[in-house]
Specification:
Length: 421
């Protein structure tokens, strides 16, 4: 009990120090008493005692008027902070006492220190302040501690109450709305009879063209690369569950921060698409702690996965292909969507293994060479295109994001507008 009381005292520690006027009163009071002691003048004694009494009254009034003040940070229900977007935070100052409070100042870390001037608040009243906040990067942020400062009615003493309460909040990655993504959901309109209509078939891979195949299903990007006719293959029954596998292997010294942020933005966009399509999904991360979510659907599952993306770090030691091979097939559900920053032969072989196991794979690949050079090197571009071609021949549908506009660069797949969170 004693430890708890000490902790509460420290968290709401009150400090008092004189203002400029207070220092003057204190100085003249001490001088008056010293001179009165030397010369024995009664009036000087009275002046010294009066100034000392005034300071004592200021201390009592200031403490009494400020003790009922309370401070809180509020985030509007259903609102979340998103990197790169302006948001608002509500600060509430209330007066629990019956008397009117003095004017005050609040200094709070949001997360940088900011000063707010607040006029007097009536007894048993509260005042709200809407504060704009902006976060450039995703992550876990801490608000506070704050300090509330007031001055007594005579302006002699300043009271500062340390607000020890801290508030933790997640800032989520910016995401984009997908369109024409090669995974189709089970959303449909409910007819008059209440039946559920399935929309279309599900992409399951690529194969060589055969006589009689629908020419609308020709994969022209692969044709341009290989010179052979390749068509998309579809299964009649859309996969029910999808695993989104996020490559969080430790980046090399030449990697830029934008690479990881765009990769995580891409993963969040895929998760949002699956949630809106009504498909169950899970997130598997190849970071050091191998964080993952369970299969789920809808908003609840989406925000569980986004909580992981908000704090994800590229600190893993396993390559995407090796990580995929280590994951048990039952953990991958009925389809796999890989979001990667590197393509190697191990990944190609793993995708081919998924194909053999009849697990359709979609790969969202980051063209890292576009992030590391001022101009696009033709040699590096050709090497990257060769890796993409091998992935497609292994049976994967590939989407590429480049430095130009980050995750929104996938124009043929994604909407470019933000604000989906």
């Amino acid at each position: 009990m004693r430890e708890l009381s000490l902790r509460l005292w420290r968290e709401r520690r009150l400090s008092v120090w004189p203002t400029a006027r207070g220092w003057q009163a204190l100085f003249f009071g001490i001088v008056s008493l010293l001179v009165a002691r030397l010369v024995g003048t009664t009036q000087l004694y009275q002046l010294g005692y009066a100034l000392a009494g005034l300071l004592f009254v200021s201390l009592s009034l200031g403490f009494s008027l400020s003790r009922g003040l309370r401070y809180a940070r509020l985030l509007s229900s259903g609102k979340r902070f998103v990197a790169g977007q302006s948001s608002r935070l509500t600060l509430t100052v209330s007066n629990a006492s019956r008397t009117r409070s003095p004017s005050m100042e609040v200094v709070d870390s949001l997360p940088e220190p900011r000063l707010f001037s607040i006029p007097p608040i009536g007894g048993a009243e509260a005042r709200e302040i809407e504060v704009p906040v902006f976060f450039e990067k995703r992550g876990l942020y801490k608000f506070g501690p704050g300090t509330m400062r007031t001055v007594d009615p005579f302006g002699l003493l300043r009271f500062a109450r340390r607000l020890g309460e801290r508030t933790e909040t997640l800032v989520y990655p910016s995401i984009f709305e997908l369109r024409d993504f090669p995974v189709r959901g089970r959303r449909g309109e409910i007819g008059e009879t209440g039946s559920f209509n399935q929309q279309g078939d599900e992409f399951s891979g690529l194969r060589e063209y055969r006589r009689g195949d629908d020419k609308r299903h020709i994969h022209w990007k692969s044709v341009a690369r290989t010179g052979k006719l390749v068509v998309k293959e579809f299964s009649l029954n859309a996969p029910r569950r999808h695993a989104v596998v996020l490559d969080l292997q430790r980046a090399d010294i030449h990697a830029s921060a934008a690479e990881l942020e765009d990769e995580i933005s891409a993963a969040g966009s895929v998760l949002r698409y699956l949630a809106r399509e009504g498909l169950p999904f899970r997130l598997l991360c190849s970071d050091r702690e191998r964080r993952a979510t369970a299969f789920g659907e809808g908003e609840a599952a989406y925000w569980r996965a986004m909580d992981l993306l908000a704090v994800a770090q590229a600190d893993g030691e396993t390559r995407p292909g090796d990580f995929l091979d280590e994951v048990a097939r039952e953990r991958l559900g009925d389809g796999v969507i890989l979001v990667v920053r590197s393509i190697d032969e191990g990944l190609v072989e793993s995708v081919a293994g998924l194909r053999a196991a009849r697990l359709p794979a979609v790969v969202v690949a980051l063209a890292t060479h576009t992030y590391r050079t001022d101009g696009v090197s033709s040699g590096r571009e050709a090497a990257f295109e060769g890796k993409v071609r091998r992935l497609e021949l292994a049976g994967a549908e590939v989407r590429v994001t480049r430095r130009t506009r980050g995750a929104a660069n996938l124009a043929e797949v994604w909407e470019t507008s933000r604000g989906a969170v």
